[in-house]
Amino acid sequence: MSSATTQPWFARHEIRLAWREWLTMVTGGRRRRTRAALIGLTAFAAILHLPAYAVIGRFASLEAPLGKSPLIVLTSTIFLAWALMLSQAIESVTRVFYARADLDLIMSSPAKLANIFSIRIAAIAVSVTGMALLLSTPFVDVLVVFGGVRWFSAFGVVISSGLSATALAIAMTIALFRLIGPARTRLVAQILAAIIGAGFVIALQIAAILSYGTLSRFAVLTSDAAATYAPDAESLLWWPARAVLGDREALLLLLSASLVLLGIVTMILSPRFADTAASASAHAESRRRGRASRAFRGGSRQQALRRKEFLLLGRDPWLVSQTLMQLLYLVPPALFLWRSFSDSSTAIVLITPVIVMAAGQLAGGLAWLTISGEDAAELVATAPLSSAQVIRAKIEVVLIVNGAIFGPLLLALALLAPMQAAVMAAGVITGTASATAIQLWFRSQAKRSHFRRRQTSSRLATFAEAFSSIGWAATAALVLALPVAAVISGLMTVSIIFAAWKLSPRRS
Amino acid sequence: MFDNWRGKPHGDDFMEHERPALQLRGLTKRFDRLAVDALDLTVRAGEFYALVGPNGAGKTTTLRMVAGLLRPDAGSVDIFGIDALRAGIDAKQLMAWVSDEPMIYDKLTPMEYLEFVGGLWGIEPKVSQGSARELLISLGLEAHLNERCEGFSKGMRQKVALAGALVHDPRLIILDEPLTGLDAVSARHVKRLLSERVHAGGTVIMTTHILEVAERMADRIGIIAAGRLVAEGTLNELRQQNGQNDTSLEELFIALVDIEAKAA
Q1: A386 touches chain B (CB under 8 A)
Q2: Last residue of a domain, which of B141, B169, B197?
Q3: Structural domain for B212, as ranges
Q4: I need a labelling partner for A441 at 20 to 30 A (CA). Which of B14, B107, B137, B144 fits?
């Protein structure tokens, strides 16, 4: 195959792979479900127009020229979307370096690697942009229907954001490789991806709490101080906002700038992409040396199991970054509580669902890792322990980790407001227990490294876990605000969990 | 090396030693088709037993049922006289399983992995640490004792898994294709270690596609086809049974499997 024909051929190969990966994600790997999944997805996208209308419908009449405050809000929203795309792009780039099984094959082939990797960079850009277009469609549709066709230009801004986010993600990841090496890059990039995705919102919330005593990030964006420091209406900073509003000149500039940026990154970095991929795969061969651990010295069989789980959880960079995120999300409500508690007891009602929800989500992830993500399942199954003892030890690990994370917060709260702390504690315990139970009922053996794909292994478990966390979060908040409604919410959540149990696979 | 070996016959243990290490009666397992067909098999204590057969013959399914990883549809599994289907934990205490696909933890070092296995089998930490180090060194992993397993080759992982199976001094070791993916030196390490085990009174049951290994190492060989034992014995017994005194195991195997296929 000549070099000229290699690129289009490889592009087709990448598109086919991306399509199949996406199909696997939506169908949970079951090919027979493709049609049902596509119908379900279309219905879901149609339903998404309702919340999109609720969130954005009132802004459809916005027209240029805008005042500084609306410009700040619109620009910040675009920046937030861009930050999320950057986060996803960093994820995709790290996956290409570390998790693609075909790197050895490609790199041992006679194809020109710079060409191959330029296609792969384009594939990352297409997948990041495609996903963003998919998610933004309901919002843009609402704006077009209620505000006119000029809002179609928002799609152009999404494309430009996707291209520039990909370019920056590649440049950042390769720079990290050069600066800190392949071993640390994986962990740092995962943490960066997590922080970039939510950091902007969290930072705005913290600023709003400290300055205005509210959890609303719009408090900062719409403040007089922000308007005072913001540049004039002609500034380049507002071009994305102008482009969204239908300014063709601004849109063309943005699209050209992002295309040029991606082109430059591809031209300069695609040859290095190959070297970097080679370093990453060589890293898999390198060894991490550590001091002799004393983790397993002494104790019962169950203790050995628990210690193993703790050790593995502590050495899992993905989980560490996710836990860090859960803790980061807790910072604004904790700060809000601290600022507001002396003035009003309603603050506790606002913080309770956040904490209960976080506990349920973290427990679900931990339970999947300990129960389903057992890399040496046959070793544990052939050990002289009953399966009940094994399961109990693993559940204890989930409870201990959640207790260690949420316990101090609950204790601090108990000193200030024992009754509210008791309600929150009950919510955290129930949310944790429910998420753990759902993971137990739907357990299926998987590799620990497949943690990111756990949602696709059982859609039912994923939805049950999410709705149970939301249900217990709402119930806990309602106990404090409207106890009668809490009974209804609690009963609904119990029925969700009961339904999940009834629908879970039977085990002999 | 194996001073704390519990399988040597003396005193009251003698009667126990007389019991077969493994006795299968009418063992049956069906998936889409019959995988194991009312299999009867006895392996004596202190024996090196090789189970050979074509792909899909039911070797791995049989051993997985013995190890407690699969529940049989019918039949019994006795390990040193213990009914493994009723008293699974007591039976598991006496044996170890090594899969052809080594399952170890990437984020643990070999020493940590072996100490964890020791903990699961309730071995005193001091004992398990000592034998863990010795085992890993004897398998050529001295330089990697405290490195995480994430960068190990398949052969190294296989050796760690094997060391894990031996660290709690099992009386019965069941191995499914343990030499797959090992280089010549590593394969020799493993074969030596298994022979030492048998000389020390242990029992080894192993499936293999490398008939030369079965021919050289095994005391007795069982040939399985379509879920049934079609021949069993020492190499000489197998030759006599088939009236072919000078043939290799490979020729015998092909002849027996061919007959079985034609009969089916």
Answers
A1: yes
A2: B169
A3: 1-94+171-264
A4: B107
